[in-house]
Structures are given as C-alpha cells and as structure tokens.
Design brief:
The longest helix has 20 residues, at 423-442. The strands form 3 sheets. Strands 1, 2, 3, 4, 7 and 11 form a 6-stranded mixed β-sheet that branches. Strands 9-8-10 form a 3-stranded antiparallel β-sheet. A two-stranded antiparallel ribbon has the order 5-6. It has 19 helices and 11 strands. Helix 1 (2-13) packs across helix 3 and helix 18 (402-417) runs antiparallel to helix 19. 44% of the residues lie in helices and 13% in strands. It folds into 2 domains: 7-142 and 308-366, D-Maltodextrin-Binding Protein, domain 2; 146-303 and 373-442, Periplasmic binding protein-like II (D-Maltodextrin-Binding Protein, domain 2, 3-Layer(aba) Sandwich), CATH 3.40.190. Strand 5 and strand 6 (135-136) form a beta hairpin. It is α+β, with helices and mostly antiparallel strands and 445 residues long. Pfam families: SBP_bac_1 (PF01547). Residues 1-21 form the signal peptide. This is Sugar ABC transporter substrate-binding protein. InterPro entries: Bact_solute-bd_prot1, SBP. Keywords: Signal.
Length: 445
C-alpha cells in the first residue's frame, strides 16, 4: 500500500522533471536542495551566496515549494530513489521512518567529525525526534510547539484577561466577544486548509486534549467516537462562527497574514509564528501580542512537537558537499548571521540551547522565547493525550499511511468548515479511510 501511494504521487507530480542531484553546472558542482517555502527558509536562500563564496566550485539550486507540494515531491523522490535532490527538508514525522526504511544517510558520523557543530547544543526532544537507533538522520533547522498568540490591546479594550493556562472553552468565549466583523477583525484564526500538515496539525491537538484518538491500542479506528465528534464539532463551529473569512482555504501562511495585518484577535498555531508577528518589516502588530500555552480541555498540555530539518537521501552523489551545506544552514553561526542580517526576530527558533543565550535574541524574543521552550518541553504524549495510543506523534500519526489518510481526513474537515457537508458525514467518511489502515496493522502490517 505504501509503495503504491508513493509511486502514484511520483507519477502525478512528475518528479523526474527536476535537475538531477549533484549535476555539473557552469561553475562546477550544483547541489539541488528541496525546501519548503516558509519565511525562515526564504532567509536561508537569501543568505546562500555566503555559502557559495565559502565553498568555491559548489553552486546551490533550491526547489522551493509550498508545504503540501514539497512533502509529496520529496517523499516520492526519496522513496523511489529518484536521486533528484542532494538534501531534502523533512520533519520528525519522516526522519525516523525513512531512516528505518534505509532511505536516509546516517548523519552522526558527519556530525561527529565536524568541529564546533555541537550536537549536544540541540534541545534534547528535538534531537531525539530526528534519531533512529541512537543516530541522527536529519539535522534541525527550526523547532516548534504550538501556542496561542493574542492581541493584548484588544483584550484590554474588551475587558478580558488571558488566563495563564487557557481552556478551549474560554478561548471560544473570548473569540465571540472579540469578533468584530464591522471592523474586519475575526475573533480567532484557525487553519482550515486541507493537508495532513496543514489543518490537521492544529485540529489534532484539539482532538487529543478532548480525549480523542485516531486509533485505540488495538488499531481500531476511532474517528466517530463521541470524543472525536466533540472535538470536530467544536473546531468547525469555532472557525465558522468566529474565524477568518475563507477559513476552509486558510493555512499557516494565510493566518499569519491575517494576524500580522491586524485582521484577527487570536491565532492558535506553531510557535515559530512569533518571529513574524514581531518583525517590524512584516507586521503591523509588533509589541501588541501576548503568547499563551496551547489551550486544553482534559489534559495538562496540548501543544505539538515539530521540527523542519535537513536530511540526505541515501542515493545522493555529492554527500560531502551536501553535508557542508546542511551543517552551514544548521550551525550556531548561521543563527547569528540571520539575526545580524534580517533582525533577531527572524532567527530560526526552538533548536539550539545557545540561541536562547544570545543577548540580542533574548531581548528581541522576550515575549515568546520562554513560551516556546515551555511548549516544546511539555510536548509529549503522556501530557497531551488522555488515552494511550499505538502510534508516535502528537499532531500526526507516525505511520507512513498518514500522509494519505491525514490528507483525506483534512479534506473532509475542510468541507465541513466550508459548509459543504455535515461534521457527522465528514467523520463517517474519515472513519472508513481509517478502518482500512487500522485493519492492515491488526493483520500484522
């Protein structure tokens, strides 16, 4: 089943149309890097001339795509040993699975012989999430949990106070009071865009804290359970009643634009958002935000754990050059270069402990540095889920089939947000998808 899905993706996306990894360019060797088109990655691309100057004869070619497209293209190429890329941007969802499949190069030998790289400087939970059998198979670029950004000025104007540990019930009440359609301000922004890494990421954390789960310990699908229905109805109702315009097609980028342009009072999403929220060159609300822990219902915490990282496909041809690039983009000096060039709010967060000791960063990130670290620290299944589950992952189910299953479930959720189908119908269809996956695991997948 996995192989079929991956091959189908490869055919649909035509991954063979990309320049081959390690191609010979006019100026020497060309490394082809597959990367996600997020703001922090764009900064890395902007600084990449520095790497080329430090490494004569090596040219970089970036294939930069939106998250959903990048995931599919990178997965298809790596799984089928297409050889298109020298380095790929992946996450803690892919890294341990792909390492077990033999698709990725073991990076620990490269790390150990690179002076000053200092793997012990990585936040332990982030480092461990990219490891398999004690070795790292990807190196983190930025790490995150999730939290809630809120406009302190709008809260004060409405006479509201954000609790130290808010509940989702409280957040829904606040959203209703802050919703000001006449002024073009929604009460909250929540992702509704289809994609297992888009809307399903924040939604899954809501499901977890409501006591829901995708599968029980025996791999029985649970998407029509009372807990899952309660979470889905809450999420859909909240975003339909007090969320952003066009919520069914809004993802991280769209919510980011809405928040930084003053079009929403609250935004629940990845902790990495704070850098953009506080960036004077991109935001109209600099200095106006507070950052609260991910809201809860039945659990102590509900934030996720995620890291965008760089891995090296096993079939890569120029591994030494690829590692030079990967360590350049993930070392301590890169953090300082970003801060000095673009501003300290643009620094890749949540990865290196040393980042949080840089005086300039501590000052710039005073509002959100500790909430980010607290969220990452609290992000584990024992704190964020009510019942034990047979899979790793908080905002995802750590099995290969979840790329397909999660995308299908997210499409149903998005249709419910758009008012095209009922929540019950969306979950009934999602349950059918999940039952097929669960059955394969019960049969000794």
């Amino acid at each position: 089943m996995r192989r079929f899905i991956l091959l189908a993706v490869a055919v649909l996306l035509g991954v063979t149309g990309c320049a081959g990894a390690g191609a010979i360019g006019a100026g020497g060797r060309t490394l082809v890097i597959a990367i996600v088109a997020n703001p922090q990655m764009k900064d890395a691309i902007a600084l990449s001339k520095q790497f080329e100057q430090e490494n004569p004869g090596v040219k970089l070619k970036f294939v930069s795509l939106p998250e959903n497209q990048a995931r599919a293209k990178i997965t298809a190429s790596t799984a089928t040993e297409g050889g298109e890329f020298d380095a790929v941007m992946i996450s803690n969802y892919e890294a341990p699975q792909w390492a077990a499949n033999g698709w990725l190069e073991n990076l620990s030998p490269y790390i150990d012989r690179t002076p000053g790289y200092d793997k012990d400087d990585f936040i332990p939970s982030i480092r461990d999430s990219l490891s398999h059998d004690g070795s790292m198979y990807a190196v983190p670029f930025y790490g995150e949990s999730s939290f809630l950004a809120y406009r302190k000025d709008l809260f004060e104007k409405a006479g509201l106070t954000m609790p130290a540990k808010p509940t989702w019930k409280q957040i829904a009440e606040f959203a209703g009071k802050l919703d000001d359609k006449a002024a073009g301000v929604s009460g909250i922004c929540l992702r509704g865009k289809p994609g297992w890494g888009e809307s399903l990421a924040p939604f899954s954390t809501v499901a977890n804290t409501f006591g829901a789960q995708y599968f029980d310990k025996d791999w029985n699908a649970k998407l029509t359970s009372p807990e899952f229905k309660a979470a889905a109805n809450f999420y859909v109702d909240l975003v339909r009643e007090h969320g952003e315009v066009g919520a069914s097609s809004a993802g991280f980028s769209e919510c980011g634009t809405a928040y930084t342009q003053g079009q929403t009072a609250m935004w629940y999403d990845a902790t990495v958002m704070a850098g953009t929220n506080e960036d004077p060159s991109a935001s109209k609300v600099v200095g106006k935000s507070g950052y609260a822990p991910a809201p809860v219902d039945k659990t102590q915490a509900s934030g996720w754990l995620y890291t965008w990282s760089l891995g090296m496909p096993k079939v890569g041809k120029n591994k030494e050059d690829a590692w030079k690039f990967m360590q350049w983009m993930t070392n301590k000096q890169f953090v300082k270069d970003v801060g000095k060039t673009f501003g300290w709010n643009r620094v890749p967060p949540g990865v290196r402990k040393s980042t949080y000791e840089i005086p300039e960063y501590k000052q710039a990130a005073a509002a959100y540095a500790q909430p980010t670290l607290d969220g990452i620290d609290a992000a584990n299944q024992q704190k964020t889920m009510v019942n034990p589950v047979p899979y790793p992952g908080i905002q995802f189910v750590g099995i290969p089939e979840f790329q397909d299953l999660g995308t299908r479930v997210s499409q149903q959720l998005s249709a419910a947000i758009a008012g095209q189908i009922s929540v019950d119908d969306a979950l009934a269809q999602s349950q059918e998808y999940a039952q097929t996956v669960g059955a394969s695991y019960r049969e000794g997948h």
